[in-house]
Amino acid sequence: MENTEMIEKIDVEAIMEEIRGKIKERGYTDEMLHFQDITVEGEASMDVFKPKVLKKVVEQANARAHIEYLELPLGGGVKKFVKKCVRKMISFLLVPMVEEINQYNSTVTQSLNQLYAFTNKCEEELKERDQQIAELKKRIEELEKRG
Prior knowledge:
Layout: H1 2-9, H2 12-26, H3 51-64, H4 77-146
């Protein structure tokens, strides 16, 4: 009985008006049909490279790469027993999927780690080359003054 009372109190029109107001406030238009067209604070653009964002994403991938399939205590009494039975009945399907997902996650995480290491190496090489270029420019200027 309580659930039906809660449903009756929900004002869908008020919620829709609130959503419409937020859409107007943020300046979204009907032309914005794709999610990638809408920028979200804190999200990285696909057009601009940001080393700090890459580092954060790599750290998150490393932390979340492995999924555990655990036999967790669920509920109590009959509910716990039924959930345990269902979990055992479908474990032959879930365990191989979880293992495949973990292998995929591991591969992706290793790739991200390699890309991160490569970008760091490239940045260091660019700094060294910039220093070499600056030194060569100074030497050219000195030679031109002498010449």
